[in-house]
Amino acid sequence: MSLLGIDMGTTGCKAVVFREEGTQLSIAYEEYDFQHPQPGWAELDTVRVWEQVRATIRKAARSAGPDPLRAVCVSSLGEAVVPVTADRRILGPSILNFDTRGSEFLEQINARLPGEDLYRINGNTPGNQYSLGKLLWLQKYQPELYRQTWRFLHWSGFVSFMLGAEALVDYSLANRTLLFDLERADWSDEILARVGIGREKLPPAVPSGRVVGRVSRDVAEELGLPPGIPIVSGGHDQCCNSVGCGVIEPGQVKYGMGTYICAVPVFRRRPDAGAMIAQGLSTEHHAAPGLYVSFIYNQGGALVKWYRDTFAALERRQAAAGGEDVYSALFAEMPQAPSRVMVLPHFTATGPPRFIEDSAGVLAGLHLDTQRGEILKGLVEATTFYLRECFESLPAEIEVADFRAAGGGSKSDAWLQVCADILGRPFLRPMVSEAGALGAAIIAGTGSGVFPSIQAGVEAMVHPGRLFEPDAAMQRRYDERYARYRQLWPLLKTYLHDLEV
Predict the structure, then answer these.
(1) pLDDT tens-digit profile of 55-79?
(2) Mind listing the domains of the chain with CATH numbers?
(3) What is the pTM of this model?
(4) DSSP 8-class letter at 203
């Protein structure tokens, strides 16, 4: 018996078939590009992407072997929605969260939904990354498309709908709109009335792990799926990824190491709104029932990529030509000791708590004998220092006991050891790296009755790999480095202010 997990991202889709004990049977991947029809715009060509999603599912299903497929579930990117009709026609592109459209409505949203009012209901503060601004833009500038749209579906719900499910949204993705009532687990009539969005344009909300339909016969024949298998409601990719890492208990933290370093702590009780707003933290339903998550992040993976492209361009081209991974060789150059290079990782706009846009990156402590491996280690240390500062300011309701690592960066033993030493907590790297698809498969198994609960699915399918424990001596050395790191931003802030004056 097997389960299909689909992981929809901003630039690609993975479809992975797993046995119910966690063995990977097949995997397929299709990459796609987002479009820039005008400066500042970023959108997915929904029709084209749906073709590629179907191709991904078809490849994975046809190479999975004879194990009967029991159910399917979709994990997806967060805020982007797709306009559809009741008869499953796609009406337009999907506007991505970093698209600038909608920013003109932020002042209006703030006036109608002051920060504490919105946070009390929804668990977020206003921002143009959420779906609301995009919906207001469509309502004003593309009124005919808005009028024709039956439902605006997030990508997890959209893919499920096109496979044959009802038009629905899970709680975690509904929260990415700014229109959802976290406590009532339904669309907020108060927010909808204040911003002028009709409930009829939004799909009903359900928890993750609910059977929402069955694969239609026509779709099953096209994609090589068994007709009539259950389609189970999925979730926000960060939540599904956490399930795939086994992060389903308070105190556990999923540590995603991709372009963004995104730490996802799990907690049971909503913290005080004032404390969360002060730290720039959101609150969202987890895909596991009865739990919440938040997101602490920076672009640490992007800094490592910048290092590769800047300091190892030749090795990158050589490795690509030979089908090899250049990162393992670069990480091997890092010194064992803490780097002499101190870095302020503000190479781009920062994440919580300050969301600084007018800063800049700093490399301090360079000498003529500085090796490039020291620079890489300084970058890795700095992004971890940044997150340590965030963790030290968390409300008391959010505990941090241990971390589960996922994403491309988690392949590096050296990087994970630095994280354990700086954060002072153990880091576990699960055996399966495709945590998003695995989390979706676990949710599929739970909803279809293969497992009695998410916890049982995690116990069956998530297998621990290597554990990285903090080194006490190295931790003391990093405590000293961390104290110096915390002085960098105040110094640079004063310098930038003096330049403006």
Answers:
(1) 999 999 999 888 899 999 999 999 9
(2) 2-240 (3.30.420.40), 300-392+473-500 (3.30.420.40)
(3) 0.91
(4) P
